[in-house]
Amino acid sequence: MPRPPRLHVPGGFYHVIFRGNHREPLFASNEDRTVLDTFVGNVISRSGARIHAYCWMTNHLHALIQVGELPLSKIMGRIAAPYSRYRHKLLRTSGHLFERRYKATLVDVDAYFLTLVRYIHLNPVKALMVSDPVDYPWSSHRAWLGLRSTPWLTIDFGLSLFSTHAENARDAYARFMGAPDLVEDELDSASNPQDSRVLGSDSFISGIPYRPQKPRRVVTLDQLATEIATDHSIPMEALASPSRERSLSAPRLALVRAALDHRIATLAEVARFLNRQPSTLSRLLARRSTPYGK
Which H helix or E strand runs over 223? Predict the structure, then answer.
């Protein structure tokens, strides 16, 4: 059975879970998490999206993301692609760093926003990594308490649900975090049996004009190259440039594979487009495997 299409709701809130491929670790050091923070900040500042809560676990990521007009898939691709390249360059390896399909659940904010924030922030406690979420530095919990500032994080909306006075709101949030016993039961019961992509009731679903994310309508090699360059945050001209930078190998390979898989162009046509020899691209295909369009 084919997977259901993504739901794109401009202004919608999504609980996103992105796992390492085969549940492998995504981080080897604190520096890796800092690098991810930088990529996330760069993408969020340009995408019109907001992150209200997050937690970077060892082999998976949690985030509560509010999107704008740009679909969530584009946002996640623009975060995952540069971080994957960073890790591959660091480890001198290739392949899939993340699972190809992340999990995204559209959330009824009025009913479950705070419960979901608490669930995300308690992940390290549930995993027995810490006994108090304040001791875990790679989540937004400390920022919610006013103990740290994260420029790309939005906390004003969440705190305003407790109080319009900042100090009172933080105190109320801290008390709220101290009563976590029913968090998972609340979220499990909220999962919609009619649509697993939604955390909310039937009335919530019927009241939101969500629409499936439009499928790609790429028909030419130029269009495909433009889309892949955008996904990898590089100029389209860089694909066909003489540069031999390793960072360009992944998008070039993605272009070759997508063009062949979707019968947009032959290997010879792609080679001419990239100013390369077909034999060079054949060796690239045999040597590397990089996902296109996460």
Answer: helix 221-231
